[in-house]
C-alpha cells in the first residue's frame, strides 16, 4: 500500500523505514528536511511540504501523522484536514488525549474524512521488534489500512501462545494490534497502558531503592547488606514472577553502572499518566498505585516543596521543633 | 502529692512547673543541672543525682520519667528500677514504643514495681493549656496517681461538652485524660494519635501547596490565581469544616511569612508515625493516608532518590528519553 | 440590603433565615413551595416563580443562587441570566466546579451581568455558627454585597486572634470571609478546602480503625486492647495536637454508639474531592494523601472490585493459590 | 550430589523431582506419606521420619527444608538442628522472615551447623522453567551446594543476554541464582522481590479495572467503550513496554473468562509484602506504591470497614448527609 508518513522523528522515521522494509510505499514528510532525506535514503519518497502529499497518494489517501501530542498534532491535523479529499483516512499515531480524538473525529467527519487513532508502544526498539498498536475508529477504515498495521506489528514472534478461541480479533491481537472500538478508544487503551507502565516502573524503582539503601551505614551490622543490584536484576529475569521487558532494561542499565550516577532523577511525565488518573476518577475506580506513581514523578522534579515547608512550620508551632539540618 | 520528675526538658520542665502551680510537691532531677536550677526556681525541690530521689519520696514513691524515647529512657528506667522500693510506681511519660512497655512492665513487675505508660500530647503549649494524656497500666496504680493526672490535664475549659452518659471514665475524658487499658495501651493510643496527626498535617500541606502553585507562571491567565494564603487560613478557622488547632498554627505561621522562607522543608519523623503503620499492618487495616504522610516526610529529606534515578534509566532505555534539565 | 435567595434547601433556607435575623430583606424562591412557605415563616418574602423576582428587587439586583452544583445550577443561572437587568449581580453559592465559573462569568458579562462565586462551608450548623465563605469575582461587585457577606459570616467569635498586620482583607478574614480573586477563585479555594477535608477525615478514619481492630481476637493477649473510642475521642478534644471540629463531630457520633452500627460505610463524594486532584495534577503537585482519601471513598462503594478479582486470577496463575474463603 | 528434601508440597515436591531429573540423589521426607510415595515414584528415596535422614546422608549433610514460613519451619529447623552433625548445612528454602534467619543462623552456629537461606521464585511453573533463587549465607557452604543450585536454576534459556563484564557472580546470575551476602540476605532480596510483585500486580489490576469500568452504563455514549480485555492483554504481550510474565498470566486468565466470575476478589497476602514495608520504613525509603498494593489486599478482604463507617458518621454530623443506599 501507499501512504503518507508525516513526522519523521524517533518514532515516525523508524515506522516509515519498517513499512518500506515490508514492501509498502511511503511518502515521507517532516518540516526538518534532514529527516526527510534520511527517510528517502531508507527507501521512502521524500517531499518538502504537506501540500505536495495529495498528488502523491491514491484515493482514498492515508495520512499517518506521527507527531508529539498537543499543539503540533492539532495544527497539522487541521492542515491535512483542509487539503485531504472526501473519503481520505487520517491516522493520529501520536500520544493524543483520547477526548481530543472525539472532537477531531467529529470535525473531520463534517468534511467527509475519517479519523483513526492509533496508540503505539515500542519506543526506539520498534524498528526491530515491531510496534504494538491500539486502534480506534470506523470499522471499514481500520480494515482498509490492515496491511499497514500488519507490517508495523511485531507479529507472533517466539512468545508462547495463549490457548484461546480463534477469531479475527484474536488473530490480530496475536500479531500485536487490536481494534479497540470507535474513535478515541485506541488512545484510551494506550493511555491506560502507560498508566500501568508508570505503576510498574515505580514498583521496581521502590524495590531497588530498598535494596540499595540496605547498604546504608546507619543500619546495625548484621542487618546491613551490600547487594549487587546488577546480579539481582539479572537473576530476576530468569524464572521469577517479576520478569518483564522493563526488568530487562533495568538489567542493562545496572550492568553499566549500579550507581546510576549519570541520572539525576528528575523524571518527566508525558500526559498519559495524568489522563489515566482523570479517567479513573471519572469512573470512580480507586487507583492508589497509578496515582502514587505519577505523584512520585512530580515530587522528583522539585527540590523543596511548599507542602514540606508547611509541615516544618507546623512542627515548629506545636513542638518548638527545629528543622533537620540540610 | 509528692513525686519525682526525671527529665526537665521542654516537656518535663513545664510539667513540673504546672504540678507545682497546682499544689503538688515535685522533686526534680535532670543531668543538666541548669534545668534543675530552673525547676527549683519554679518551686520544685532540685536534686543532683537519681540516687537522692528515694529518700525524698513517700511510699509508694512515684517516679515520672519524662525523657526522649529510646536508649536514654531505657537506661534511666533500669537505674530507677534498681533503686526503687517494692510497690513504687514508675511512669514513662515519653514517646516510647508501646511494645517496649510490655517488656518493661514485666521486668519491673519481677522487682515488685509497677509501670504506668503515659502518652502526652500538648507540646510547648502544655504549661498553659494542660496536657492531654493517654494512660496504660494497672488499675490501682493509675487510680493512685489520679491527683497528678488531674493537675496536668487541661480540664473542661470552654470546649462545648458532648452529650453522653456520665461515668467515671467519661468524666476523666472530659478533664483530658483517659486510662486506656493495661501496660502499653497508653503509648499505643498516643502512637495512633500521632499517626493521625501526620495524616492531618499532610492533608493541610498538600492543600496549601495546591493553593500556592496556582500562582505559577505557566498556567493560563484565567486559571492562575495569586491567593493570599494567610487570609485563607484565617477564614478557614471560622465556621469551616476543617478548623482545628493545627490550622490555628498554620495561620500563625502564614501571618508572619507566607513564603515560609525560613523553612527548608526537611521534615523529621519521630517514631510514632512509623509504629502506627506497623500496628496497622499487624491488624491488616489499610492506612493509605497515614502511610503516605510518613513517606512524604522520608522523601522530603532526600535531594535525589535512587528510585527516581532508576525511573530515568528505564525511560532512557525504552524511549531514548533524555532527563529533564535541572 | 435586599436580595433574592434562590434555592431554600438545607443551606439556602438557613442562609435566608440568618440574613433576615441580621436585618436584611430576603425574597425567597424554591420550586418546592413548602420551602418557600417555611422561609416566609422565618421572615422572608416568598415568591412562587423566578419571573416574579426582578420586580421585587432594587437595581442592581442581587440574585443568590444556592442550589446543588451541576445541571440545576446551570439551568437556573441561564434563566436568571435571561431575566436580569444589566448591572445585576448573580451569586453562585453552590459547590460549582470552578472552571464552569470561568465560562459562566464570560457568558454573563456579554449580557452586562456580573458573576460572584462563593464557596460556602458550614453545613447544617451554619445558621448558628455562621458560614465561612470564599469569594471570587469583580472587586466592585464583591464590595457591593459586603453587608450580606458580613451577616452570613461567623464573625470573630471567641476564637483566639492571630497576631498579624491589620488590613481590610485581614479584617474580613477574621470575620470569616475572604475575597480570593477573580471569578472562579472562590470555588477554587472552597474546592481545595474540601480536598483537605477529605484527607483529614480519612486520617481520623484510619486512626480510629487501628484503635478498633486492636481488639480483634486473633491478636496475642498482651497485644490486644479493648479501647473505649468514645473516651479517647473526648480526650483528644482537649489540649491535643489533633483537636478539631471534625473530632468534635466524631466524639458526638461515638458518644451515641461506638459500633457506628447505623452506618454501612458506603461513602459518597461530591465533586470537590475529584476536582482537587485534577487541579493538583494540572499544577504537578504531588497529593498522595488527598488522592488516597478520595480513592478510599470509591472503594467503599464497591463490594468486590475487578482489580481484586484480577489479583486473585494472577495469584492462581503463578502459585496455584486458591482464594480466601468469604 | 545427595541431599535431603524436607517438605514435599507444591514447591518441595517439584524441586525434588527436578533435582532427580538433573542426576542428584534426593532423600525425601514429608509428614504426609502420600507425598513421600509420590516423590519416590519420581526417583527419590522416601523416608518416613526425620530421624532416618542422617544415616542416609554423606558428611557434611545437606538438609533442604521447603516448608511454609512460620511455626512449622521453625519447629522442623529445631528438630533438624538437634539431629544434624557438626559441619552440616541446613537450607531454609521457604519464605521465612529474614530477621528470623539472623537468630537461626546464630543458634545453628552454636551447634557447629551452617544456615543457608534461599528465597525461591517460580511457583508451580518451576518444575519446567526452573527456580530463580536468592541465597544468603556462608561463602564456603554456598559454594559447596553449587551443583544443587545449578540444577534447580532455570539456566540461560533463550532470554536475550545482557552485555556485562563476565565474573563468577555474573555467570551465576545468568543461570538464575545469586549469592546475595550473609545469612538473611537471600530472604531479604526475595522479600523485596515479592514486594515489587505486589506493586506490579496492583498496577495491572488498577489498569484493567479502568478498562473494564469504561463500559459502565452511566458514562456518556461517546465516552463509553466496551473493550475486549482478552485481546488487549494479548496485544500488550507483544512489543509493548509493559510485557511481562505476569501479563502472560493475565492473558491466560482473560482468555478463559473476561468477567473473572470465578474469583470473588478476596486477596491474601503472605508476609513478604508486609515485611517489605517494614524494611523500607527502617531505611526511611518512601514506598507509596508497594504500600498501596498491600493495603488494597487488606481492603479486599473486608466487606465494610470501620473507617468508612466513621466517614459516614462525620458526613452525617456536619452536613446531615444520609448514606448512599446499598
Automatic annotation (TrEMBL), chains A, B, C, D:
It comes from the Bacteria. Keywords: Gluconate utilization, Oxidoreductase. Pfam families: 6PGD, NAD_binding_2. Gene3D superfamilies: N-(1-d-carboxylethyl)-l-norvaline Dehydrogenase, domain 2, NAD(P)-binding Rossmann-like Domain. Pathway: Carbohydrate degradation; pentose phosphate pathway. Belongs to the 6-phosphogluconate dehydrogenase family. This is Decarboxylating 6-phosphogluconate dehydrogenase. Residues 186-325 form the 6-phosphogluconate dehydrogenase C-terminal domain.
Amino acid at each position: 500500500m501507499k501512504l503518507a508518513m508525516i513526522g519523521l522523528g524517533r518514532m515516525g522515521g523508524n515506522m516509515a523505514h519498517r513499512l518500506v522494509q515490508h514492501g509498502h510505499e511511503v511518502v515521507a514528510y517532516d518540516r526538518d528536511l534532514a529527516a526527510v532525506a534520511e527517510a528517502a535514503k531508507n527507501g521512502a519518497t521524500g517531499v518538502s511540504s504537506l501540500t505536495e502529499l495529495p498528488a502523491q497518494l491514491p484515493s482514498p489517501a492515508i495520512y499517518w501523522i506521527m507527531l508529539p501530542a498537543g499543539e503540533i498534532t492539532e495544527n497539522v491535523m487541521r492542515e491535512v484536514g483542509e487539503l485531504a479529499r472526501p473519503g481520505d483516512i487520517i491516522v493520529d499515531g501520536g500520544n493524543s488525549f483520547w477526548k481530543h480524538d472525539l472532537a477531531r473525529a467529529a470535525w473531520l467527519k463534517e468534511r467527509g474524512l475519517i479519523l483513526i487513532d492509533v496508540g503505539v508502544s515500542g519506543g526506539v526498539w520498534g524498528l526491530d521488534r515491531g510496534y504494538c498498536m491500539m486502534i480506534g475508529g470506523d470499522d471499514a477504515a481500520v480494515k482498509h489500512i490492515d496491511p499497514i498495521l500488519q507490517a508495523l506489528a511485531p507479529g507472533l514472534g517466539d512468545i508462547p501462545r495463549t490457548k484461546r478461541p480463534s477469531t479475527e480479533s484474536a488473530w490480530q491481537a496475536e500479531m500485536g494490534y487490536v481494534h479497540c472500538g470507535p474513535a478515541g478508544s485506541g488512545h484510551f487503551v494506550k493511555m491506560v497502558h502507560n498508566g500501568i507502565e508508570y505503576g510498574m516502573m515505580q514498583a521496581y524503582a521502590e524495590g531497588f531503592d530498598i535494596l540499595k539503601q540496605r547498604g546504608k551505614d546507619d543500619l546495625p551490622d548484621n542487618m546491613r547488606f551490600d547487594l549487587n543490584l546488577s546480579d539481582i536484576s539479572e537473576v530476576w529475569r530468569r524464572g521469577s514472577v517479576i520478569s518483564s521487558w522493563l526488568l530487562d532494561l533495568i538489567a542493562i542499565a545496572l550492568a553499566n553502572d549500579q550507581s546510576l550516577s549519570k541520572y539525576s532523577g528528575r523524571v518527566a511525565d508525558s500526559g498519559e499518566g495524568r489522563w489515566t488518573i482523570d479517567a479513573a476518577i471519572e469512573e470512580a475506580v480507586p487507583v492508589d498505585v497509578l496515582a502514587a506513581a505519577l505523584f512520585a514523578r512530580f515530587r522528583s522534579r522539585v527540590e523543596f516543596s511548599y507542602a514540606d515547608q508547611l509541615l516544618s512550620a507546623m512542627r515548629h508551632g506545636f513542638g518548638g521543633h527545629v528543622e533537620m539540618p540540610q
